[in-house]
From TrEMBL:
It comes from the Eukaryota. This is Gag-pol polyprotein. It comes from Trifolium medium.
Amino acid sequence: IPVEVGELSWRTTQPLSQEANDEALREELDLVDELRTAASLREASLKQNVAARHDVKVIKREFDVGSLVLRRNAKDSNHGKLATNWEGPYRVRGKTGNGAYHLETLTGQELPRT
């Protein structure tokens, strides 16, 4: 016989009165805002720590206009794991900010969405 069946639970041996239950609910409602605030502070702190760890490992690379670069190849599922990882070389045509660049082929044809 499982213990749950043979022994009475705390809930059944110590029933709460309606007044005590209402008071406990009011106290919990008063604490909800504090708990949410504390949780959002912990979340913000965790996000900052994760971002700081990530930023330490990232090596920022900037290219000048006219530099030759390779572009990561968008893998097609039909080509399998032996498909090329990089395509190019391409020439940097211009900077757009935040590490994004406009690229062109070596013949001068601009690549869309780069």
